[in-house]
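tool_call predict_complex ligand=zinc ion
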Amino acid sequence: MQITRINRRWGAVNVPKLGRVRFRWTKDLPGLTKGGPAGRITGARLVKDAHGWSIAFRTVLLVSAPVPHAGPKVGMDRGIAVPLALSTGEHLRHGPWLSGGQRERLLRLERKSARQRAARGKGDPVSNRERRTYDQIARLRATAKRRAVDWQQQRTTDLARRFSAIVVEDLNIPAMMASASGTVQEPGRGVAQKWGLNRSIAGQAWGRTVELLTYKAADRGGLVARVDPCGTSQECHRCHTTTKGSRERQSRFACKDPACGWIGNADTNAARNLLHRYNSAAAWAVTGRGDSAMAGPVKRQASCPTVSPAPALRAAA
Ligand SMILES: [Zn+2]
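tool_result ok
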């Protein structure tokens, strides 16, 4: 590939069919950056978004196996009221990805492109004006996505540093999107927001968060565990009573058991349930059978199977 450094900020690389291409040198590259990581570059990929091209180098790094993470475990729930809720009670929030002015501009551009599309006759070519509108829309969307990814990168790095195990719900994205739209009998809540401006970002966000966490945790000797989330929003984390409809308002959980009566944030409650499931599953796996002390959690697992504390593994040469 013949990567060379031109100066502190710029490098150059030979790209097949394109020739010599300059790129902004934003990361330490093994074997090329003085004092950079030990390893080598095995490939490269050109990536395009609406802001332009970027090049991503594939590297193999020589790293020593991390020592087991000594930090506490944490449960993390994709909240209804907040983006990410931790069992510690913390809520990880972010602002809107676009400023008020940018959102207005995006709306205006979307209306404009609809007008331009409607005005175009059947079979007419797309005008340069219409194409320019699409480009402007794509750039705003790309800005929003970059900000979302940046937020995720920062949050996941912080989580992987602090916690030895991050317990998340075992959900696949199609199921999540299906629950967003709901059914005819019971339409989902917040459907308009979920399918609106940020739908592509929201759709990718959870999968990417777990993916980032998985390798960042593995790098630091931690792991990401997935547990079955079924019923975690209806169960009280303190007394483990499950009451249909105990999630009174979206953000508030009120335990229906008069002996317990815990009232608090619904997302925090769900995150604590995830952590509890992981802890009971781990304890159960160690004892090998459900003895009387573990009867509660074991019974719940029977109705909510698939508890898989899978250690996160990442190929590191
Ligand atoms: Zn309770």
